TrEMBL record:
It comes from Jiangella ureilytica. InterPro entries: DHFR-like_dom_sf, RibDG_C. GO terms for biological process: riboflavin biosynthetic process. Gene3D superfamilies: Dihydrofolate Reductase, subunit A (3.40.430.10). Pfam families: RibD_C. This is Dihydrofolate reductase. It comes from the Bacteria. Residues 88-170 form the Bacterial bifunctional deaminase-reductase C-terminal domain. One of its GO terms (molecular function) is 5-amino-6-(5-phosphoribosylamino)uracil reductase activity.
């Protein structure tokens, strides 16, 4: 089974979006550099960020996100984000009309079913879980192996929390990665078991 990683860009005070689901300056580092991060040419980062992010992205087999994120992003226009092969959407509602049940998007009810489906699809590749409510639920269930965050130099004060509504203590190991890019600090923590 691949490693399960909870991941997102985050404000210094722990938010992944403001109250209106807007990331504001959280993604400035993704467009403020001079090294293309993907084929689109839209995402451009510093060389330091590229050297850290690109190998990670290349290892992701599946992304897990909640239905809210799926709806807010308009289903990523039918293509899983960041070149990932599959997306698993945690939802209590059926797939939107017209979505191919044999396609790259898989709609499941519950986080345990989502992680199981994602691991089946990913094999030994990384299963990425979007931070927020679903990510927090996966962490609370003890299914996250590591936490990665790209900390942007902004304080939101309120909004959508990185760890969602987690209300219990979860111990992480000391960060085994701390890399300063331009306008971002990349951190990686292993989850203590």
């Amino acid at each position: 089974m691949g490693t399960v990683v909870m991941y997102a860009s985050v404000s210094v005070d722990g938010f992944i979006a403001d109250e209106n689901d807007q990331p504001g300056p959280l993604f400035d580092w993704l467009v403020g550099g001079d090294v293309p991060l993907d084929e689109s040419g839209v995402l451009k980062v510093s060389q330091t960020s590229y050297d850290y992010i690109r190998p990670y992205w290349d290892q992701i087999g599946v992304t897990i996100a909640g239905r809210h994120v799926f709806d807010v992003t308009d289903g990523w226009d039918g293509t899983p984000p960041a070149g990932v092969d599959h997306a698993v959407v945690v939802t209590h509602r059926p797939a939107p009309e017209g979505w191919n049940p044999e396609g790259s998007f898989h709609f499941v009810d519950g986080i345990k079913a989502a992680v199981a489906k994602a691991q089946e699809l990913a094999g030994d590749r990384i299963v990425e879980v979007a931070a927020g409510d679903v990510g927090g639920q996966v962490l609370a269930a003890g299914l996250v192996d590591e936490v990665r965050m790209d900390v942007a130099p902004v304080v939101f004060g309120s909004g959508k929390r990185y760890f969602g509504s987690v209300h219990a203590q979860h111990l992480l190991a000391d960060p085994d990665v701390a890399i300063q890019g331009n306008g971002v600090l990349h951190l990686r923590y292993r989850v203590r078991r």
